Amino acid sequence: MGRIRSDTHTSTRDSNRRPSIWAGSLRRDHIRLEDLQSNMIQEDQPYTPSKSGPSNASRPSFAWPFHGRHGSEVPSTARSSHFTLRTWGQPRSFFRPHDDTASIDRSIVPDYVVNFLRGETPETLAQKKKQKKWGPHGIEVTPRRGTFASHPIEFGHYCSPSLDVGRDLDTSGNWSQQSNIRRHITGWRGGIIFNTLISFLILLVGIICLILVITKSKLISGESSIFSGDCTTAEHINVGIRIAINIFCVAILSGANYVFQVLSSPTRRELTAAHGNRNWLDIGIPSLRNFTYISGFRASIAIIALLSAVVTQVIYNAVIFTTQNVVNYDVLFVTQSFLDHAPFSNDTRFNEGGLSNIDITRLQDASSQNGLTDLDPTTCLHEFSDMFQPSFDTVLLITDSTSTTSSLIHTSKSGTPLTTFTSNNNDIVAPDGSLVLHCLARPSAPQSCSVNLSGSILGVAVLLNLASVISMAIILARSTFDPLVTLGDSIRSFLRNPDPTTADMCLLTKTDVKQGRWGSSEARFFVPANHFWAQTPSLPRWMLTAFAWLVIGAPTAVAVAFLVPKVIENPFTPFGVAVPHLTYLLPSHVQAAQMALFAALPQLFLAMLYFVTNSHLTTYFLSHELSLFALGPRPLRVSSNAAGGQNTSLYLTLPRPVSWALVGWFAAMGFALSQAMFPGVIILSSRRSPNPFSNKIVAISFSTQALIALLSLLLILILAIVGLGLKRAPAASLASGEAKGNPMVLGGGSCSVVISAKCHNHDVVAPGQTMQGDDRHLWLRPIAWGVVEEGSGMRPGRCGFSASGMGCVDAGRNYV
To answer: Rounded to two decimals, what is the model's pTM?
Structure first.
């Protein structure tokens, strides 16, 4: 499309020559069209249609007698003869909402007059209408640098007809018209609402369960049985509840991490103060470093959200525990003739266990009918050397004794471990000195189990959950809080108001900042090199990730290596089921609820690993997002107040698929950990008198299957982190004609100074002048980063963001 240029005359001498409507007092109906010359239109300001009418940002402000006026202008009435022309040199706040005072009342001025004032012709209007419908065709995009020279108005010079540029240029007007409801359900505020709702639903479930417990047990302290009956059913119920609990816990952790990242993100004022003191902050990632410069209120809320979520992870996993009802086994030493129904004596000298004649006779009958399981002495010693035995209720130890007075040599108290009768070479020796040849064990009857809930622990969990919800929601009440949460937020802020402390340092790196080379505005050469994602996190961050993984990974590996060989018959014990060989008593007696809390303590390390891993991966994707700007135009992804070509999302830096995968993975690891180490509550009872002689054992139990599953998940996690680190950043610079390296990658992690240094794409504009072309409000458009001005001679080139054409960074040239 051809360009239409209006004849403009900018000199004061020429403007004084022609008749001017500004010079005298004219009535509205005395204004002549021939007096409205094109020189009244601000130069180099292309008109673009706007749904909200003309904007101050896209054309000059004419103070007609029938216009509304800004409060700072000269007051006038409808019959006033004085006109005021606002120049671009007059300062105007980007953050203060304002109305378009230059809008022409179309009910008073006809459209053809307005179009004439804008320099439009019927042909250009028809062309724009066609362009709006079908898109641009054959448009020549000419990249230009903003200078102090005047240029005629150019029409049809925009890349995308879908952008309502006239509306977007007036950004503060766009914000003033934006719906408050939409503002609070998009961006980071929408993300906080989403996470708060999830935490609130979890809180509601906890409150309902707590009410049911109080109603059933009539008190909040103590234990309440959810289910009692078959052990298989109890195991399924326990697994289902554990899965739900760990999904809830990781959801709360994820929400707390989201809120923590928002609250720890600096505002532009805080960032300016830090840069003024030669300090840098983190942008786009959760950061403890920023706590020095953010407000104490936000830091307190962030810490409360984080700690309450971590402790909730532990408390919720201690709410549920299972109990096994086990019949204690009897121990009998007999001769070989006992199996042939030889006579025996149950005198108290031989019958310490107190078995009746009927019980002993039934054992003789079962042995003669092959109703007992034959075990060798080693296996027998292994099976009956622990505090309980769920598979057998009686063991007959056949000795080499040849006694003829009684085939029953000795009976011990129920549950006496066979290690009591072992010799130095691990032989089992009867009280009369005879050696045990083999064993016969009677299988026990099916056991009963119960799933129990601790009301007091649930009450604490509900209170912590409530603290999480409040800490998440309280920040929504601060409507003036405008943090730089995402990379797009910081780029938009730095483009609108460049940071003078980082001028002429477009190739600044984090290493330069740490080594004190911040502030040097000397031209730099870009050294192209392949950048791997693993180079983005700093060395301390890598060490923290490795430490967080080892804290839980190393003990898990040691536990697998130590416990698996202890189970001879089946090395893979089921999830959450206490077995005798993997159950251990603590040095002092504790209650079931206390043991449940102790068993859930490793969840602290898992929560720490989640935060560290999330931050590590966020650093990966922050650098990746910035590197893509060197490949081609991309819209800014901001966390609030999106305008023009900008877009917004509920996620901050870590993409949703990665974040969801991380949540699911840690929910699986939390479940595996809760089943790998759990309270072993065993109620032992005598087969002859279940109630009077019952004994409750509270111990710590392990599951080898769950330990192996947890170790596998941990290994896959660390391999995924390292594997992503081996990914290369896309090449975007030229070295000997070959694409290599990317000047936009973040080596060493997030750094506000590095991001700020890349956002100086224009010279400082003198008062009364404006930036030219598409780069005037480029943060509203899809932009790319590259060479915006080639150097010549001793003058270095310039790099920055541009909505127009730009070149690749060349390894053989220097840039500022």
So the answer is: 0.75
